[in-house]
TrEMBL record:
Its EC number is 2.3.1.-. It comes from Neobacillus driksii. Belongs to the thiolase-like superfamily. Thiolase family. GO terms for molecular function: acyltransferase activity. Residues 260-381 form the Thiolase C-terminal domain. This is Thiolase family protein. The lineage of its organism: Bacteria, Bacillati, Bacillota, Bacilli, Bacillales. InterPro entries: Thiolase (IPR002155), Thiolase-like (IPR016039), Thiolase_C (IPR020617), Thiolase_CS (IPR020613), Thiolase_N (IPR020616).
Length: 384
């Protein structure tokens, strides 16, 4: 039976919205990670059989198949194809799944999966402009903003605003500790950024984490979606800019090329969930991927559950009965940012490096997605 392995992964630092990456086009970001990925792996880009990249707002500089444009900009041979996909916040993770499925089927042996998003240059919602949902949809389902979904989840699971804020402060603290200890250094490719005045600066770290974040400070922030609500800028994911890419191969091809496989993809899942609550999909995606793998949550050494809003990983913890110490051990999107199309690949790369850092075996990743969906992935570190 064919086996899909991960050979390499790399990401840009994640820039804050209107931060240091504001002047960098998203197609440039995508091209940079593609070029760096093949350089780190030591392969010729000509052996890549497809490039699949996630991107949510596919207009303007992110339109016209940004993945193909990035492939050409990265100086890959013209015969290397590429496609751009949108499974909302899980797009980068779905790209990894599609790449793995192409390899498992025998259609391909070498595929790059990743994602990109500049929420500064192509703001969230750009694809809808002034359009509204069809009555065919709204007559069947209550379609609300994700922020209101997060409010409903917090209420349904009985989370107080203080509990949400405590979770958020911990995300920042973990991220700051990880940066201080250099845990992200290997996975990040530094970028030289040109500023408005023509000077340049090197960006080597994620811009999002804030020092001195406290529950007391967060308690002063105004709620965004409900006047008497619980969700505010401090307990929601940050709008961000960034790109990430992962190199997948069949195990046979990796060994033929003399490359050391670092991880194998054990199992994948994708589910639909309540489109009104919208963000609870990771619960069922986790149950399904664990069942497919024949493993339990106790077998997992670390898990990355995207912090779209604090109630999302919190309700996941409660329902899955997982260990909070293993959840997002180096912080999550509340601190580190959420460049929509790139997040699925970014989290995978961080999880890979965390498993290598700790010498652990299994990692589980799950991301909630707009419209009520989620992906789940289990990877295993190859130690021999």
């Amino acid at each position: 039976m064919r086996e899909v392995v991960i050979v390499e992964g790399v990401r840009t630092p994640v820039g804050k919205r209107k931060g240091l990456l504001s002047n960098v086009r998203p197609d440039d970001l995508a091209a940079k990670v593609l070029r760096e990925l093949v350089n780190r792996a030591g392969i010729s880009p000509g052996i890549v059989q497809d490039v699949i990249m996630g991107c949510v707002s596919q207009v303007e500089e992110q339109g016209l198949n940004i993945a193909r444009n990035a492939v050409l900009m990265a100086d890959f041979p013209i015969q290397v194809p590429a496609t751009t996909i949108d499974r909302q916040c899980g797009s980068g993770q779905q790209a990894i799944h599609f790449a793995a499925q192409a390899i498992l089927s025998g259609d391909m042996d070498v595929v790059i999966a990743g994602g990109v998003e500049s929420m500064t240059r192509v703001p969230l919602g750009s694809t809808r402009q002034n359009s509204t949902s069809s009555e065919e949809l709204t007559s069947r389902y209550e379609i609300i903003h994700q922020g209101l979904s997060a409010e409903r989840i917090a209420d349904k699971w009985g989370f107080t605003r203080t509990q949400l804020d405590e979770f958020s402060v911990e995300s920042h603290n973990r991220a700051l500790k990880a940066i201080e200890e250099g845990r992200f250094d290997r996975e990040i490719m530094p970028l030289e950024v040109t500023l408005e005045d023509g000077s340049t600066v090197a960006l080597r770290q994620d811009e999002g984490p804030r020092k001195g974040s406290t529950v007391e400070k967060l308690s002063t922030l105004k709620t965004v979606f409900k006047e008497d609500g619980k969700i505010h800028a401090g307990n929601a994911s940050q709008m961000s800019d960034g790109a990430a890419a992962v190199l997948l191969m069949s195990r046979e091809k990796a060994e033929e090329l003399g490359l050391k496989p670092r991880f194998r993809i054990v199992a994948r899942s994708v589910v639909g969930s309540d489109p009104t609550l919208m963000l609870t999909g990771p619960i069922e995606a986790t149950r399904q991927v664990l069942a497919k793998a024949g493993l339990t949550i106790e077998d997992m050494d670390t898990y990355e559950v995207n912090e779209a809003f604090a109630p999302v990983p919190m309700c996941w913890l409660e329902e899955i009965k997982a260990d909070p110490k293993k959840l997002n051990p180096n912080g999550g999107a509340i601190a580190l940012g959420h460049p929509l199309g790139a997040t699925g690949a970014k989290l995978m790369i961080s999880m890979m490096h965390e498993l290598e850092r700790t010498g652990s075996r299994y990692g589980l990743q799950a991301i909630c997605e707009g419209g009520g969906m989620a992906n789940g992935t289990i990877i295993e570190r190859i130690s021999e």
